[in-house]
Design brief:
With 260 residues, the chain is of the alpha/beta class. Helix content is 38%, strand content 18%. Strands 3-2-1-4-6-5-7 form a seven-stranded mixed sheet, sandwiched between helices.
Length: 260
């Protein structure tokens, strides 16, 4: 089973069409899948828009009465995928955004990499559609801001919001962490912390080139590049997840005692 996890806040103009695009992808790439969406206290009509989709698609919607933030939404989606799976060694979760910046046509390649033995796959983005100069700089500079604190061997786009993980790898990461998996911050920082924690339990990590489309968004960015940079810098000073050693080819995936 492939669990497509989509955090959403005020994305009524895009999330419905995105769900149909994902359905079309799986029509040409026959795999079992479920759509998991968090409506994080949206102030637009996201909740009403998603209701009819739940009747015709394998869709579960989690609604927050008040906004809890991106990190909380992502962790809730991943935990739900883990609760539902009965084959964590085979099943996976794909994380992507609801605003059209991530194209679902890349999902099959993520899944193929996992089926070939990877445990963590990160989409390394080429930015398209006139993102600001600050956004371009920050995407390149985020690994430097987080150096020695949050990092993944072989992954340059550490703040990418488009990735996939084998669920047994996620389960091991959750068992190794007391409390919340994501505690350093929101947005890009949450992505960096997620990959850093998963990397310690992945026997193989791969990247897939993707295009991040800023011209298809129907809303302005929720924070400036400067605000994001300060958030990344503060998080890097607060939390440190030691950079995982590069996985050795053929190394068995770590299994807790009694794991299925």
């Amino acid at each position: 089973m492939i669990y497509v996890c989509i955090p959403s806040f005020d994305e009524a103009s895009t999330v419905g069409l995105l769900l149909w695009k994902i359905r079309r992808v799986f029509g040409e790439f026959p795999r079992e899948y479920q759509l998991l969406v968090v409506d994080d206290g949206s102030s637009d009509h996201t909740a009403e828009l998603l209701e009819p989709y739940a009747k015709v698609l394998p869709l579960t919607v989690i609604r927050h009465g008040a906004r809890q933030g991106y990190a909380e939404s992502v962790e809730q989606l991943l935990r739900l995928a883990l609760e539902r799976t009965d084959r964590p060694k085979r099943d996976c979760a794909v994380l992507m955004h609801a605003d059209f910046s991530h194209g679902p046509e890349a999902i099959p390649e993520f899944v193929r990499r996992l089926e070939s033995g990877a445990d963590l796959v990160v989409g390394e983005a080429t930015l398209s559609g006139e993102p600001s100069r600050g956004q371009r700089w920050l995407r390149r500079g985020a690994p430097w801001l987080l150096r020695g604190r949050l990092g993944v061997p072989g992954v340059r786009d550490i703040v990418s919001g488009f990735g996939a993980v084998r669920l047994v790898c996620l389960r091991n990461a959750l068992r190794a962490q007391s409390g919340s998996l994501l505690s350093a911050g929101d947005g890009w920082v949450a992505n960096a912390e997620l990959y850093a924690r998963l990397a310690h339990h992945a026997r193989r990590i791969e990247t897939v080139p993707v295009v991040e489309r800023h011209d298809l968004r129907t809303r302005a960015p929720r924070r400036t590049a400067w605000d994001a940079a300060r958030s990344i810098w503060r998080a890097g000073r607060i939390i440190k997840v030691p950079v995982a050693a590069p996985p050795r080819p053929g190394t068995p995936l770590e299994q807790p005692a009694g794991a299925a």
